[in-house]
User: Fold this.
Amino acid sequence: MAAPILEVEDLGVEFLTDHGWVRVVDGVSFSVGEGETLGLVGESGSGKTVTSLSVMQLIPVPPGRISGGSIRFAGRELVGMSEPQLEDIRGDDIAMVFQESMTSLNPAFTIGEQICEVVRRHRGCSRREARDRAVEVLELVQIPDPRSRLGAFPHEFSGGMRQRAAIAMALACDPKVLIADEPTTALDVTVQAQVLDLLRSLQERFGMAILFVTHNLGVVADLCDRVAVMYAGRIVETATVFDLFESPQHPYTEGLLQAMPQLGERGKRLAAIPGTPPMPWQMPTGCRFHPRCPYAETACTEQDIPLRALAGDRHVRCRRVEELTLEGAQ
Ligand SMILES: Nc1ncnc2c1ncn2[C@@H]1O[C@H](COP(=O)(O)OP(=O)(O)O)[C@@H](O)[C@H]1O
Ligand SMILES: [Mg+2]
Assistant:
């Protein structure tokens, strides 16, 4: 594996709610190598966005707090770093694209103004150089006639174009790490495919590391090198994309694979995982997946299950991992 550029270790994040402090991310560890694309996959509410925002140190405090753990970018600890230092890193070394493009873009400023501002803040270059860079990145994301689009406001763009502009802004300073949190979820299916193609080609060309967050395991198949599967605030499995699809080791991963439409289309039964994920203030004891797991035994409900390292750089949080043979995507 390439040298790690982003290392998250034992991350814990809590929010103060009507139920008191609830831990919504619990002991999450993963790393992303230089130039690698790691998929972070899990159902809605599993803690993917909270994890992404933690990497950017953008958790709202209060009601949130990082209760423990470490997040290192190129060996530098981000947890507890001063705000001015973080501002130097955000948008320059680590950039983020959100699910909703209007979270990345400000409706009151033109696309050109917003990209130029990021470039000038981090590069300290002239207005003219910043404009040239803005045109260059809009071209990279295949926005036609980019120079004339600099003066457009976000609402004058279609959803797909806005997300492209948000990606352009994220790439403006050549980040080492791009965090893309469900970047295509709000888009039409055909536009989704185009934006995914774009991200893939940008990654090939510039080699930035990507943390690609999605609830859709199908989307990671041709974009990601490795996958981390999250369930109820915890990582339950990490593996290469190939290994994960070929031989899932956690029952939750098997369930996600079986619920993928691609498999259904090939004539297989499309099985949604029965039940719903737990609320963070009522996490089940033992394995958090046990109430929905077809393989659960009494011991699974009692013991806390650690994430264990297996051969081939895999990690699995299941006490029955040695006995079970789960069904992959073939
Ligand atoms: N500001 C907040 N206040 C309280 N709870 C929050 C807040 N933000 C997120 N959460 C809770 O954290 C959990 C994880 O949320 P999130 O990371 O957004 O999930 P995902 O991105 O995987 O869908 C959810 O239970 C959510 O309700
Ligand atoms: Mg989310």
